Fold each of these.
Amino acid sequence: MDMIIKNGTVVTASDMFKADIGIENGKIVEISGKIDESLAKHVVDAEGKLILPGAIDAHTHLAMPFGGTISSDDYYAGTRAAACGGTTTVFDFVLQDFGETMVDAVKRRDKLCAGAAAVDYSYHVAVKDVSGELLDSIEDCVKFGVPSFKVFMVYDFGVTDGVFYKVLKKAKECGALIGVHAENNEIINTLTSEFLAEGKTSAWYHYMSRPEFVEAEADTRAIQWAKAVGTKLYIVHLANKDGLAAVTKAKDEGYEIYAETCPQYLEFTCDVYKREDGRNFVCSPPMKGEESRQALWEGIKRGDIDTIATDHCPFQSYEKDWGKDDFTKIPNGCAGIENMYPYMLSAANEGKLPFTKVVEICSTNPAKIFGCKEKGSLAIGKDADIVIYDKNIDFTITNDKMHSDCDHTIWEGIKLKGYPVQTYSRGRLVYDNGKFVGEKGWGSFVKCKID
Ligand code: DUC
Ligand code: ZN
Ligand code: ZN
């Protein structure tokens, strides 16, 4: 055996128990009460610590051209930061070009990612063009190992209702999963024009132009279409109470509707947009009111929110400053890839939810939903993507302790109870007590297959 992690408490989505874990060739080969130390080349003592599966961040935008610039974390910086926050797999969004097949879009982005990523990675394709034979290229992409797609209902790369409908139908035929960024584009544009005409240009009006109903209406419409087509749907970064109620209702009716939310919607409310640095919090959808924030926590506890992901899309302060006097010029997005797992685990450590629930929504569920069979839990045969977590560390997030290529973080000053001390990616140590110790290019492509 290459390594044994001894004496820790193993956490799965359903259970917590004391056990040793044996690792060989990057895989978990044994989990039992006691493994003989002499069998391993290397022994790690995790007495008093939790042993968790690495998190899967199913929603990142690394090196993404957006808002007149490119998000500041490339595939190396973003995955380096991921490793340091206990995330061992990321799913990045590939934005299809017009006229490009889905597989070509993946291959184009993979040229940037392969050889750069420090942890394992896969993709979702954000669909723009399904004209002619491009619709069928969805099926080729499923066979290629990227079976998940996304449509945007907003932005200049958003799709029409007709394209959304066609994509849902194709997904049903070929076993793909469609994710949706749900906000009502027309209402956003109308409200935005009104505010700008009235000279209301501060970051607060980013929220005011995309309030609760703008998201809820789109969530409800998207769910309605998925129901009509008879296919499943994954709502990304759900941030509002009424949209969540629509998800709950659809689930209760027996529809396969999944919901993802992000840590920023669990921690912050729209009040952040009144702050002096409010523009740094500008992302879409925006943070909502306290009622929505509370509802999201309840949704997690009830099981109506299936996954947590980050929507990691950082921009430098000078880029955020472009929108000082006009909120529409602020590039949308924030950093979060290094904060997701520590934040959720801290919530568990404070008694807000069980550790098993955090493992379920940050690792096990995304692995199941997106079909990465080797990931998502501590079990024999799975990849040894492992986090050792110390419940007794008091950690205050500051940007100088983060590993992104971004000059600020919206998480500055947030206090966490407990923190990861080590992260292993397929058995290789990539994070050790505050330091990145992995390597550029270590990450490999994860082929996915949705059942
Ligand atoms: N929202 C963001 O805030 N950034 C990237 C894309 C998105 O949908
Ligand atoms: Zn989005
Ligand atoms: Zn996103």
Amino acid sequence: MTVLVTGASRGIGREIALLFAKKGYQVAANYCRSGPEMEKLVQEAEHQGFTILPVRADLADHEAVKRMVQEVENNFGAVDVLVNNAGIALQKLVQDTTWEEWRNVFAINVDGMFSCTQAVLPGMIRRQKGRIINLSSMWGVTGGSCEVAYSASKAAVIGFTKALAKEAGPSGITVNCIAPGVIATQMNQRLSKEDLEALREETPLMKIGSVEDVAEAAFFLASEKAGFITGQVLQVNGGIVI
Ligand code: NDP
């Protein structure tokens, strides 16, 4: 079984790549700017006796994504599981958000998901099976003040997931998304200690989530056990949004 995980050089994507590798998958791990971090992941996997194939592509570049998926298929054959995890955040008032910033958030969070999905779909349709797992966010469900561009892009991920689930279901492909709450990664390092503590207190389970919490949910959605689940938003958020 082959999985392609985007944005796997750190954070949630890195953990998903490692978990799938440990579970016996052939893992292709996408990255863009963080070459040294990806090199560390490849080495860590090797120490643990697994092989991870690093594949570089800027997901905002549609042609580069096509070449990346071709590279994965040349090495491993068709992709069984695609995890559209790569994403960027933007914390700004909407009136301070530049057109370029708005476009960049959508280019990576939405266009990248579209390009990767479109590139792997022919292989999945041919084999009448596949799993697509998209990373949304609690802000895509509920909207976040000062995160309008990010929230809108993550709401688009949910719309994409639900529509594609209907379109691809007859081909034996499930499409779901995970909407994490606050997870301890570099993405949240911009938040002040006070803001992070406030979010922790707002979370009914009174803690910040871990990358493992999200990776386990992704692994479940990819498994045979989740075969009758499609078009869903799995909220891995400690109850902060219900
Ligand atoms: P990080 O910021 O830690 O990592 C983001 C990853 O995305 C990196 O591996 C980065 O790779 C990759 N990436 C960014 N731009 C591109 C690009 N143009 N092409 C390819 N890869 C790119 O994020 P998290 O691990 O925290 O988040 C992962 C996903 O989960 C995101 O979609 C995020 O929106 C979502 N999420 C996270 C939450 C959290 O609290 N952390 C909460 C809700 C959702 P590189 O550096 O190599 O470019």
